[in-house]
Structures are given as structure tokens and as C-alpha cells.
Amino acid sequence: MRIAYVILAHQLPEQLVRLVCALDAPGARFLIHINRRSDDAVQRAARLGLAERANVVFLRRHKLYWGGFGHVQATLEGLDELYRSETDFDYVVLLTGQDYPIKPVAEIETTLARSDGRSFMAVDRLPGGWVDGMDRIRYRHWRKIGRPRGWHLRLPIARRFPLGLEPWGGSSYWWLSRAAADHVRAFRAEHPSYTRFFRHVDVPDEIFFHTIS
Asked: Is the whole model's pTM more than 0.90, yes or no?
């Protein structure tokens, strides 16, 4: 089983190293994004701790703010790197640097092998379920968190959800099969307007992949 892990981290590099060590197995690949708002010491420590693992790649860093597009952008960076490097994978997994497996890797791989290529994603039709407020996609949003309080702007002019799609949402973190990841890649290439639309969605990581997967 070939599993690619996209990991979004911003602190605790020692814990990030433990996470990679716990998940490492033949066929595993790790694509790690360290928030550019984090101290550079976080990336240096993580690189040092994982220096001997040839299956670890550190991605170009983006600034991530809660509720902003940066989380989607960093995830897309990981997916794009998989295809640029022509990495063979059966599943791609999105995690944070503070996740940790509660099952052995062998059991995880066995479960995936028996899943008949299904993806795993918490998802609900909108509005309702995980994402209740449709104003998150109906209006343009800008977010930035900083001192002393940061800011959140919403342009009060309604817009249509792109391409006639029906919006779905759910948890930001998921396991996508290779077929699902291929579909996401092809959809983005064919419809760049979809990605542009989501640059001003509020908390877009809970909707972006769910709607097109």
C-alpha cells in the first residue's frame, strides 16, 4: 500500500518527527508544509529530525491564517508535488502536525486495501450538517489574524456558487483514493475559476475538496 501524507504543521517539530516515524513504511511519502508565519526554527528542527528520510519533502511555505485560503493552498501544493514528482500512490492523506495514529500502520494499510478504493471524508450537503452558514460562500470574505485582534471583512454583495455545482462541506481532513485525487487535479485544471472563487470563501478548507471529490 502506497500512502502519501500531506502534513500541515506550525509548531512542535519534535512531535512532527514522531508522527512521521510512526507512519513511515515501505511505499510511504511525506509532504510537509510549515506555516510561513511560524518561526524558522520550527522548520530547521523538523528538517534536522527528518534529514535521513529520503521519502520526506518540505513544501514551499505559505502564510496560513485561520479561516483563510492558505490551508487550501498549502494542501494543493502537496498534491501538485505528488504529480510533479510522478510519485506512485494509492491514497493521499491530509493531516496536521499534531495528529497521531491510534492504530499500527499495518492495520491502517489492511483497512485501506479492503476498502475497494473508497475515499474517507466527513461530508454533508449544504446548508446544514457540518457547515451551516451559507454566507461563507455567498459573499466574498477576507481574513487576517494578527496583533492585537486581526480582522475579518465580508463584502455584502451576493454571488453565485461556481459552475452550477451543489456545495458540500465537512471536516478539513480526509483520505482520498488515487482516483479521487486524479479527479480533483483534472477538475482544477479544467475549471481554474473554481479555485479563484474559493480564495474569498470563509474557512474554505471545509468546502473546497468536499464539493468536487
From this structure: yes
Q: State the first-to-last Cα distance of the chain, in angstroms, to the nearest integer.
A: 21
Contact (Cβ atoms closer than 8 angstroms) between residue 183 and residue 129: no
Q: How confident is the model at residue 49 (pLDDT cuts 50, 70, 90)?
A: very high
* Radius of gyration of the chain from its Cα atoms, rounded to whole angstroms: 18
Residue 130 has pLDDT above 80, yes or no: no
- 43 alpha carbon, distance to own chain's centre: 18
Task: Look at residues 75, 25, 76, 31 and name the one whose alpha carbon lies nearest to residue 56.
Answer: 31
Q: How many CB atoms lie within 10 A of CB 132?
A: 12
Higher pLDDT, 128 or 160: 160
Nearest to 79 by CA among 5, 135, 24, 189: 5
CA distance 43 to 10: 9
- For residue 194, CA distances in Å to 23, 121, 175, 200 come to 33, 20, 21, 11
Q: Write the pLDDT tens digit of every residue in 83-94.
A: 999 999 999 999
3-state helix, strand, coil in the chain (%, to 5): 40, 20, 45
Domains and CATH numbers, the chain: 3-122+173-178 (3.90.550.10)
Task: Determine which helix (DSSP H) or strand (DSSP E) holds 56, and give its type and residue range.
Answer: strand 56-58
Q: In this predicted model, what pLDDT tens digit does every residue of 15-33 receive, in sequence order?
A: 999 999 999 999 999 999 9
Distance between CA atoms of 143 and 4, rounded to whole angstroms? 30
